[in-house]
Design brief:
Rossmann fold, alpha/beta, single chain, about 45% helix, uroporphyrinogen-III synthase activity, Uroporphyrinogen-III synthase, lyase, 11 strands, 4pyrrol_synth_uPrphyn_synth
Length: about 250
């Protein structure tokens, strides 16, 4: 068994190293690099504009890290009179450690849908709230659309950018096949789309014969529609859970 890890950044590197250490051959092939966002200079101003009890929502560790670095560099701190949220447990724990604030997250479903299902995100709770969303460029608009429809005023800070990495796709695909890749780890719908565009059409039979390990039913359904039969949905988005999913497959 060999595994292709498409998760970008340090998280992808760490997962690959962890798999290799236990004897599972793993290759790291991220399709994006993570760079600082274009709107970080607005962060302190947007935080100051919030009133007590307003919400700050982070979609990922990348958003939190870039935001925290920016606040620290400018002498600002995370306010203790706001309500903080994250999409998943590990992201919430990381956010809490850096901000020194309590951070809420959806326990059962670490997705935008799960976050929107929290009582704090109900129509009644969001009326007249101001929500500051920390995210990257692109991505889903579900959360943004829903909170606006529920009566909140939404501000968005692009904390990081996903920049495509250029590869020779024929060479890289050939390398994966020669390495015996039979499982692929992806963590977003955008990543799945890029993967299918990246691998030459002539090798799609190989690609879709691989077991796909992903992090939500939404992405799994995208994969099934695209032609995958063997799709595993990890219970959470953190590396520990993805690691266990690979070993259990």
């Amino acid at each position: 068994m060999a595994v292709l890890v498409a998760r970008p950044g340090e998280q992808g590197v760490n997962l690959t190293e962890r798999l290799n250490k236990v004897g599972v051959a793993a290759l790291h092939l991220p399709f994006f690099r993570i760079e600082s966002g274009t709107e970080l200079n607005l962060l302190s101003q947007k935080l100051c504009q919030l009133k007590a009890g307003d919400y700050v929502v982070a979609v990922s560790r990348h958003a939190i890290e870039f935001a925290h670095q920016t606040l620290t560099a400018t002498g600002f701190h995370w306010r203790n009179d706001l309500c903080y949220f994250a999409v998943g447990q590990r992201t919430a724990e990381h956010f809490s450690a850096l901000s020194e604030q309590s951070v809420s997250y959806p326990y059962d479903k670490e997705t935008s849908e799960g976050l929107l299902a929290l009582p704090s995100m109900s129509y009644n709770a969001l009326q007249d709230k101001r929500v500051l969303l920390l995210r990257g460029n692109g991505g889903r608009e579900l959360f943004s659309t829903e909170v606006r429809q529920r009566g909140a005023q939404l501000d968005i800070i692009e904390c990081y950018q996903r920049q495509p990495i250029e590869y020779d796709n024929v060479e890289q695909t050939s390398m994966c096949i020669r390495a015996g890749i039979s499982q692929i780890v992806i963590t977003s719908g955008e990543m799945l789309t890029y993967l299918m565009d990246f691998v030459p059409k002539s090798e799609h039979n190989w690609l879709k014969s691989c077991r796909l390990i992903t992090v939500s039913e939404r992405i799994a359904n995208m994969a099934r529609v695209a032609g995958w039969d063997n799709v595993i949905v990890a219970k959470r988005v953190d590396n520990a859970t993805l690691f266990d999913a690979v070993l259990a497959s």
